[in-house]
From TrEMBL:
Keywords from the UniProt entry: Cell membrane, Cobalamin biosynthesis, Membrane, Transmembrane, Transmembrane helix
Coiled coil: none
Family matches, as HAMAP family: CobD_CbiB
Entry-linked Pfam families: CobD_Cbib
Transmembrane segments: 53-72, 152-170
Organism from which the protein derives: Methylomonas rosea
Recorded metabolic or biological pathway in which this protein acts: Cofactor biosynthesis; adenosylcobalamin biosynthesis
Family: Belongs to the CobD/CbiB family.
Entry's localization field: Cell membrane
Described function: Converts cobyric acid to cobinamide by the addition of aminopropanol on the F carboxylic group.
Membrane topology: Multi-pass membrane protein
Protein name as annotated: Cobalamin biosynthesis protein CobD
Domain of life the protein comes from: Bacteria
Length: 305
């Protein structure tokens, strides 16, 4: 039961303490390391092929630190468990995601649209200054659904499969995708390897998350949305997660959004109901129920192993 105990302790610490301050978060230090590698290897004057090769080399170099746990992980069982718990705690962000979403909800309930835009801007990459209240609601709910997969369930999955190495490998890869995975002039070729590697690591966890959302919400609508709408979204992994989640909540999500000063005509997906303020809380509850389901299943599997 060591696996289950480690996971339960990490999740408990996450809900107790939340994320560490930015200055002390390992992902912040990792981001600085990645930026230093990018500075040395990214040359937009190179051919597309050479930029892709440079990007692949950069991914390998940047991900090397996640192997350090093999060298520093103590041999004493009790201390080893403590280090594993700490690593997983750094890799998940359930409470932080919930706090950010509820901050958006609180601002909307106070009818403070400028504050709601500011709060939702902390968890989405789209521009928020021209958002309506409806835009803010949809963006917050989409972020809870998608980041639930990225920041909670995928790290848990890889921790179960590969231990702390797997959790670190996934979170570092996901961070690289967030830094280099943009399809713009700077990163179109250099970020190709980071984006594809993140897609690979996310493929199965994303679909398990989508299935969990479907089982814990309106299953028929979730499955229908997943089956008929997932391919409409740009992300091969975000598509199943968000369409299943939107369907599970019976909420219509998506629609036009502003990125880098340009309106992107994103498809509508999910259910048919326009989100209300309290639907942000419903999305958080769906994420928390999914986490509870995963913990139960992991515990059962660990006891039978």
């Amino acid at each position: 039961m060591n696996l289950t105990i480690s996971i339960l302790l990490a999740v408990a610490i996450d809900f107790w303490l939340g994320e560490p301050r930015n200055a002390y978060h390992p992902l912040v230090m990792f981001g600085k390391w990645a930026a230093a590698i990018e500075k040395r290897l990214l040359d937009s004057r190179q051919s597309a092929f050479r930029q892709r090769i440079s990007g692949g080399v950069a991914v390998l170099l940047v991900l090397l630190p996640c192997l350090l746990w093999l060298l520093i992980l103590p041999g004493w069982p009790l201390l080893q468990t403590a280090v594993e718990v700490l690593i997983l705690y750094f890799c998940i962000a359930a409470r932080s995601l919930q706090q950010h979403a509820l901050a958006v909800h609180a601002a909307l309930m106070e009818a403070d649209l400028p504050l709601a835009r500011q709060q939702v801007g902390r968890i989405v990459s789209r521009q928020t200054k021209a958002m309506t209240e409806a835009d803010v609601r949809r963006a917050a709910i989409e972020s809870v659904l998608e980041n639930g997969a990225d920041a909670v369930f995928a790290p848990l999955f890889w921790f179960v499969v590969l231990g702390p190495f797997g959790a670190l490998l996934y979170r570092f890869s996901n961070t690289l995708d967030a830094m280099w995975g943009y399809k713009n002039q700077r990163y179109l070729y250099f970020g190709w390897a980071a984006a594809r590697f993140d897609d690979l690591l996310n493929w199965l966890p994303a679909r398990l998350t989508a299935l969990s959302y479907a089982l814990l919400g309106n299953t028929a609508q979730a499955v229908k949305s997943w089956r008929t709408q997932a391919h409409l979204l740009d992300s091969p992994n975000g598509g199943p997660v968000m369409t299943a989640g939107g369907g599970a909540l019976m909420l219509q999500l998506g629609g036009p959004a502003c990125y880098h000063g340009q309106i992107k005509q994103k498809p509508w997906f999910g259910g048919l109901q326009a989100p209300e303020n309290d639907d942000i809380k419903r999305a958080c509850k769906l994420m928390c129920r999914t986490l509870l389901l995963w913990l139960i299943l992991i515990g059962l599997g660990d006891s039978l192993a």
